[in-house]
Amino acid sequence: MNLPPAPIRWRPVAIPFLVAVLVLATISPSIAIYCDEDDCYDLLGVTQSANASEIKKAYYKLSLKYHPDKNPDPESRKLFVKIANAYEILKDEATREQYDYAIAHPEEVFYNTARYYRAYYGHKTDPRAVLVGLLLILSGFQYLNQSTRYNQAVAMVKKTPAYKNRLKALELERSGGNTNKKKSQKNADKKIVEDLSNELELQITGAEKPSLWKLLGVRFVLLPYTLGKMLLWTGCWFWRYKVKKCAYSLEDASYLTRRSLGIPDDRWRNIDEATKEDLVLRRLWEKSNLERYVAEMRKESKRRR
Asked: Which segments constitute the J domain (predicted)?
């Protein structure tokens, strides 16, 4: 069963463009989109083989003759506009190359027209500016998200009984066991509570305090420095522990232990020193020691159940 062809639906945006193309095609398709019915080279009085210096010299010579400030004749003004347009096209290597291609291939009307409009009316925003703007926007959202999560987490912690008890204990410790409830001390008490609250605001796992150094934009700017520092650190590590076979320092042994256990840096800092020292002495970066430690932890977990 043969179906009738579907009707063609013209988009409103495409209609002006097609009309312009049809109008230009009735004139001289190759050059009309650049210098109307004229030839850009003829307007400047140069040949197609002229170099950039000759084109520039011809333009300045004609501008002295037809510039509105030099020649008040209205026809000279119109001619100068055409000359200036021709110079704008031919002075740039990219647009001149497109114009030369249009002259050599007059049958490719649609292709030449699309190149012309893309070159002169296309979006010309610098990609670097777009990248900087994108990084700023993402960094702003990142900081806002981190700040919101941190403030919500701190607010929840402050509502817990453990936090309130710790706050009271710290206040008693500062006041020597005496609490003054006089009205004259009301402002001072608020200041003490605020100071104590700031002291008790610990880093919360999963909702760390926002930091400018952790923002995406700052990290991108510091990327060359970060890569250089990482390469230098890797080289020193290889020389010290692979070539010279030195014993691991406490800091490097802690790093190896933390990496073997998969513990983030912020959680590692919150572990008490005795536990850290015990973990480091176990040399968990060695596979056999790590497997033994994991087996012990599993047994301990089953025993507690």
From this structure: 39-103
